[in-house]
Design goal:
The complex is a heterodimer.
Chain A: H1 14-49, H2 56-61, E1 65-66, E2 71-72, H3 75-106, H4 109-124, H5 127-146, H6 156-180, H7 184-192, H8 197-208, H9 210-226, H10 229-234, H11 252-261, H12 269-302
Antiparallel strand pairs in A: 1-2
Chain B: H1 3-9, H2 12-15, E1 25-36, E2 39-50, E3 54-58, H3 65-72, E4 82-90, E5 93-94, H4 102-108, E6 109-112, H5 123-133, H6 140-150, H7 154-157, H8 170-183, E7 188-192, H9 200-213, E8 218-222, H10 226-232, E9 235-241, E10 247-254, H11 255-260, H12 265-271
Parallel strand pairs in B: 3-8, 3-9, 6-7, 7-8
Antiparallel strand pairs in B: 1-2, 1-4, 4-5, 9-10
Helix pairs in contact in B: 5-6, 5-8, 6-8, 8-9
Classes of the chains: A mainly alpha, B alpha/beta.
């Protein structure tokens, strides 16, 4: 009988079970870390919001953020975060997109061989370096262009522009992937209809890659919003509600850095406030990432 | 099946003995050799393609029939390393002369591909696209309607012109691609196995359409399906491949002649299904 045949008897592969268990434990570990972070953020935020000096409506709509005198309106911080991020996108998206189009549609293998490693170097520069690049290069440049009295030493424009450069490699690489995954047949169809290279690229390929590109831009925005080092160094310390990008203003991340590194005592309401801000920041970036993923899933379904 | 219906189901070329009425030459290949880098894909191809006729290219895989087809509107230019020597004449003009713009050639010699490849845009925009890049100044609604009518697709899509073309069935997508090609108003339409990705019903609709279209256009079609070649074409070119994997034109005749009385033994073996 087959069951008695020693050749087919099940072997116990004990080491495989061990390896599988170890891998599972590592996976579990990273999950627990995530859960732990969320729990701490929520718990500390709860401490902040349950403080009698704080109310949620005031937090979300208040125009003054001065924990010293118990004013907890986070709009100035949010405003500065959006100012730097939008400036970053204004620079990063067009340049990143054009680099991507060039890489995907135009560059020879030799040019790609040069440009891709350069982008990788750019992506590998520590953000602290970008930070003092903003302070020692971008700010003086802006000041000499627009005037010393117009541009403050710390300003959101300088930080925003440098974040734009910082996210450029990410936008270029991901956008190139989105463009390259547009089926070759669509390009052939456009050429066969008498389209030129430019017409094919901009009137067929780019529109076809649009959802993939949108996902890329949202992810880049999320990255810009969470960026810390550049704004901590170059945007200014001290919350201020201003629409002028040449003025100093503190972003959410900038404030968190200052408080974390400062001498504020534990369990004070200022200290707890950084967890509430961290939570808000996490919700914003998490939402952006989620939408971005959703869009890129739709994009991949389109071509199945 | 009774006798009458059997006779009707036979390809038209076998129903009547009349010879193809001659028309003028629109495309002429003159000792065409096509290389991909150092590899010779096709050598010494010479033939004339006649206006308002359907010319079929048949032959085993790798015989270079699609390569020759793509050389007619210079789609081979898009393949890195592809070169051609010899001459391809269109209305007597050398398409490979130095100052010839391939973009302008493709506006006169359109192409339909093996896999339906509509743009991920609306049905309307798919038709309008080619006309737009060609600077068409007429009435676009009218152009869309006539093109879709010519491709026998109008009745099926007239109420959903704004719908994304990717939601059409495969057969409808392929007819849309034909309509899109027609909208540019070319003289010649090249078809590279246009029905090979479609089911039998969609295939027969494409075949009917081809017979309809030859009144206004010259059609060159590559096909693996010999029944299709015999049903739709007036002339058939049989390509073969030699031991170096280089394709060459073995035999080119009126379709009826080629299928009933092939001159070469290879042709006879291929059409009777001995290889391929």
């Amino acid at each position: 009988m087959a069951i008695d045949n020693p050749h087919f008897r099940k072997k116990s592969r004990f080491h495989e079970h061990i390896i599988e268990t170890v891998m599972f434990l590592f996976a579990l570990f990273s999950m627990l870390i995530t859960v732990g972070i969320v729990v701490i953020l929520v718990r500390e935020s709860y401490l902040f919001f349950s403080d009698p000096q704080v109310d949620l409506i005031g937090f979300l709509t208040g125009k003054n953020w001065q924990p010293m005198i118990h004013q907890f309106g986070f709009l100035p911080l949010l405003n500065a975060t959006f100012t730097t991020s939008i400036i970053a996108m204004l620079l990063g998206i067009p340049i990143g997109l054009f680099v991507a189009i060039y890489l995907a549609e135009y560059a020879s293998d030799r040019m790609r061989g040069i440009l891709k490693p350069v982008l990788e170097v750019l992506a590998g520069i520590p953000t602290i370096v970008y930070g003092y690049f903003a302070l020692t290069f971008m700010t003086p440049l802006l000041r000499s262009l627009f005037g010393q009295d117009v541009v403050e030493i710390y300003n959101t424009a300088s930080a925003g522009l440098v974040i734009g450069i910082l996210v450029l490699p990410m936008i270029a690489t991901m956008a190139e992937d989105a463009i390259s995954s547009v089926p070759k047949e669509l390009r052939l169809a456009a050429y066969a209809l008498g389209g030129t290279k430019i017409e094919t690229t901009f009137k067929v390929v780019i529109p076809a890659a649009l959802s993939g590109l949108s996902a890329t831009f949202l992810l880049a925005l999320s990255r810009a919003i969470g960026e810390t080092m550049v704004v901590a160094l170059a945007a200014g310390a001290g919350p201020k509600l201003t629409a002028n990008p040449f003025k100093a203003a503190e972003t959410i991340t900038g404030y968190i850095v200052r408080i974390s590194g400062g001498d504020v005592s534990y369990n004070s309401v200022d200290y707890n406030s950084i967890f509430a801000l961290g939570l808000v920041l996490s919700i914003i970036t998490f939402t952006l990432n989620l939408v971005s993923r959703k869009i890129s899933t739709i994009f991949h379904q389109e071509y199945e | 099946m009774n006798k009458t219906s059997l006779a009707e189901s036979l390809p038209p070329v076998f129903q009547e003995k009349s010879k193809v009425e001659p028309t003028k030459t629109i495309i002429q290949l003159d000792d065409v050799n096509i290389n991909y880098g150092s590899f010779t894909a096709v050598k010494h191809a010479s033939m004339e393609i006649y206006e308002h006729k359907v010319t079929a290219f048949i032959g085993p895989s790798g015989c270079g029939k699609s390569t020759v087809l793509r050389s007619i509107n210079r789609m081979n230019d898009l393949i890195r390393g592809a070169t051609l020597d010899g001459r391809v004449l269109f209305n007597g003009e050398d398409l490979y002369a130095k100052d010839v713009d391939p973009v302008l050639i493709r506006r006169r010699i359109g192409m339909v591909f093996q896999k339906p490849n509509p743009f991920p845009k609306s049905i309307y925009e798919n038709i309008a696209w080619g006309a737009r890049v060609n600077g068409y100044r007429g009435d676009y609604d009218e152009l869309v309607e006539t093109s879709l009518r010519s491709a026998a697709l109008w009745d099926e899509v007239k109420d959903k012109l704004k719908q994304n073309a990717l939601r059409l069935s495969g057969g409808q997508q392929q007819r849309l691609c034909i309509a899109r090609t027609i909208a540019v108003q070319p003289e010649v339409i090249l078809m590279d196995e246009p029905a090979s990705a479609l089911d039998p019903i969609a295939t027969s609709r494409i075949e009917e359409l081809i017979l309809e279209l030859k009144k206004d256009y010259t059609i060159v079609i590559v096909t693996h399906n010999m029944g299709q070649a015999s049903r739709v074409s007036d002339y058939t070119a049989f390509f073969m491949v030699d031991q170096n994997r280089t394709g060459y034109l073995q035999e080119y005749e009126e379709t009826e002649q080629l299928f009933l009385n092939p001159i070469h033994k290879k042709t006879e073996e291929y059409i009777s299904g001995k290889f391929g």
